[in-house]
Design goal:
The chain is α+β, with helices and mostly antiparallel strands and 78 residues long. The protein contains 2 helices and 5 strands.
């Protein structure tokens, strides 16, 4: 991924795609797997400590699917 003005240039299999920065969110994950995404989204939700406490949430399960019966699952409990 390379910055190119108002875009990110992404090259995969010798094909380069330009993605507008305004339409793109780069995620701090090592690899884009359903497991990494479930961990990332769970941490994002848990980052709002006030909301978690206000709603008295004691456990949370985040699931990300890439197709039928293919799940990355991350769990948290107090």
């Amino acid at each position: 991924i390379v910055e190119d003005g108002d875009c990110y240039a992404v090259t995969h299999n010798k094909i380069t795609m330009l993605l507008l920065k305004t339409d793109t969110q780069l995620l701090p994950v090592r690899n884009v797997t359903i497991e990494e995404l479930s961990d990332y989204f769970l941490k994002e939700v848990l980052g709002d400590h006030k909301l978690i406490d206000k709603l008295k949430i004691t456990a949370l399960e985040m699931r990300v699917s890439s197709g039928p019966e293919q799940w990355g699952i991350s769990r948290w409990e107090r």
